[in-house]
């Protein structure tokens, strides 16, 4: 339950401490085999222009019978499994295109700065209405020279004897989009299905070529191309350096920028206290600059400890130091280091108020008692179980005057 500063509870004091924030550009993001590909284009006055391009291999299933000689192609369907679609508005249909790779995806690590050659002329194009639903599978009819060629080779079979011959014929697909940021799941539900009839058949058969086979996902990655010209973030040039951009701060997934909360104002406040207990401490920032329902921010933000290095601090065992949940152990009783758990405290976005909020009462009591040092926080999208830093194109921006700690505390009695 959240305490009310207007209740004037006996013995309980209340204070709001404003915090400031910097932005930090991280090293290039590892985007290989994230389970989704990001693609599309977004533009705003703070982050500039971000273009994301998704790359994926394809699989075929050797256990599924190929069309026989003389088979007739009935139709081809393109399935795309969308995880999310982010845009300033969804009232107008959004356009995407799929291109053919001109070189193979190798068995190596790919990062957000990596890209491959592809045919600039789209093989498929579609304009889709996402007003009703964004987390959905869209099925589109396809009938062009490319699908005719693939079906001919399916019947012939020379490229479908092994995966290496198949990749020589069809290295993979490239996903691009306009006026929106798309996140597509890689797997069985993203790819092509060829429906055909063999001579003598009375029903149509299906042959899938997809970005996944059962639980095996084809190798994939996301590239991001960023242009910050003329924006506040244009000055951000060095990696892992904190930049104060003035009135606003923020972060964006896959773009590689995170927000760093400066908690040093706590030092002066804590130095004035003696024999107190923190009844409730709330970290809160917002309302965020954007409040459109179609361009929502990351749902959760993890709070990693950092210092002047602007790197995530780690324990001796290599585990990251993070703010832990209220009511749980804040200190490792064996090592004396900050505790680690797979359920840390996370800032949650409250849509109705368009703010981020989390309770930090136990954390503050541990800092006050010098059980753990006061640290600044790096805010990364996601939870301990899910990393949204490389799996999304969501963003947020906040006025620095709207970042604060709300603190309720009481003084102990002296005898």
Short synopsis of the structure:
By secondary structure, the protein is mostly beta strands. The protein is built from 4 helices and 26 strands.
Structure description:
It is a single chain. By secondary structure, the chain is mainly beta. It has two domains: 189 residues, no CATH class; 191 residues, no CATH class. Helix content is 8%, strand content 39%. It has four helices and 26 strands. The strands form four sheets. Strands 3, 4, 5, 6, 7, 8, 9, 10, 11, 12, 13 and 16 form a twelve-stranded antiparallel beta sheet that branches. Strands 1-26-20-23-22-21-24-19-2-17 form a ten-stranded antiparallel beta sheet. A two-stranded antiparallel sheet has the order 14-15. The model has no long low-confidence stretch (mean pLDDT 92).
Describe how the helices and strands are arranged.
Elements: E1 12-18, E2 20-25, E3 36-44, E4 48-56, E5 59-60, E6 72-86, E7 94-100, E8 124-128, E9 137-142, H1 145-156, H2 163-169, E10 173-178, E11 181-185, E12 191-197, E13 205-210, E14 212-213, E15 216-217, E16 220-227, E17 242-243, E18 248-252, E19 257-262, H3 265-271, E20 276-285, E21 300-306, E22 346-350, E23 355-359, H4 361-368, E24 376-381, E25 395-399, E26 403-411
Antiparallel strand pairs: 1-26, 2-17, 2-19, 3-4, 3-11, 4-10, 4-16, 5-13, 6-9, 6-11, 6-12, 7-8, 7-10, 12-13, 14-15, 18-25, 19-24, 20-23, 20-26, 21-22, 21-24, 22-23
């Amino acid at each position: 339950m959240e305490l009310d500063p207007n209740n004037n509870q006996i013995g309980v004091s209340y204070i709001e401490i404003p915090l400031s924030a910097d932005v930090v550009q991280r090293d290039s993001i590892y985007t290989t085999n994230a389970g989704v590909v990001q693609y599309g284009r977004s533009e705003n006055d703070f982050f500039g222009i971000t273009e994301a391009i998704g790359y994926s291999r394809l699989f075929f299933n050797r256990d599924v019978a190929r069309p026989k000689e003389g088979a007739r192609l009935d139709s081809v369907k393109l399935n795309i499994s969308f995880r999310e679609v982010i845009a300033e508005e969804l009232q107008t249909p959004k356009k995407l295109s799929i291109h053919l790779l001109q070189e193979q995806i190798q068995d190596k690590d790919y990062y957000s700065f990596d890209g491959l050659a592809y045919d600039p002329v789209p093989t498929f194009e579609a304009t889709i209405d996402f007003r009703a639903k964004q987390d959905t599978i869209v099925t589109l009819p396809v009938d062009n020279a490319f699908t005719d060629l693939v079906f001919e080779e399916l019947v012939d079979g020379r490229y479908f004897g092994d995966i290496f011959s198949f990749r020589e014929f069809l290295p993979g697909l490239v996903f691009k989009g306009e006026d929106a940021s798309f996140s597509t799941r890689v797997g069985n539900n993203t790819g092509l299905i060829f429906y055909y009839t063999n001579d003598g058949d009375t029903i149509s058969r299906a042959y899938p070529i997809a970005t996944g086979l059962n639980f095996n996902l084809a190798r994939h990655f996301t590239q991001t191309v960023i242009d910050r010209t003329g924006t506040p973030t244009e000055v951000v040039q060095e990696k892992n350096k904190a930049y104060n951009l003035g009135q606003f701060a923020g972060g964006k997934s896959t773009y590689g920028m995170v927000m760093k909360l400066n908690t040093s104002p706590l030092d002066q406040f804590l130095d004035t206290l003696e024999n107190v207990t923190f009844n409730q401490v709330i970290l809160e920032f917002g309302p965020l600059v954007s409040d459109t329902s179609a361009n929502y921010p990351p749902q959760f933000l993890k709070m990693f400890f950092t210092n002047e290095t602007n790197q995530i601090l780690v324990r001796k065992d290599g585990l990251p130091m993070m703010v832990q949940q209220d009511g749980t152990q804040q200190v490792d009783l064996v090592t004396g280091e900050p505790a680690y758990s797979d359920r840390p405290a996370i800032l949650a976005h409250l849509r109705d108020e368009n703010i981020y909020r989390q309770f930090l009462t136990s954390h503050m009591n541990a800092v006050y008692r010098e059980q753990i040092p006061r640290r600044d926080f790096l805010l990364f999208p996601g939870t301990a179980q899910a990393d949204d830093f490389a799996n999304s194109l969501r963003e947020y921006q906040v006025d620095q005057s709207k970042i604060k700690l709300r603190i309720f505390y009481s003084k102990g009695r002296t005898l």
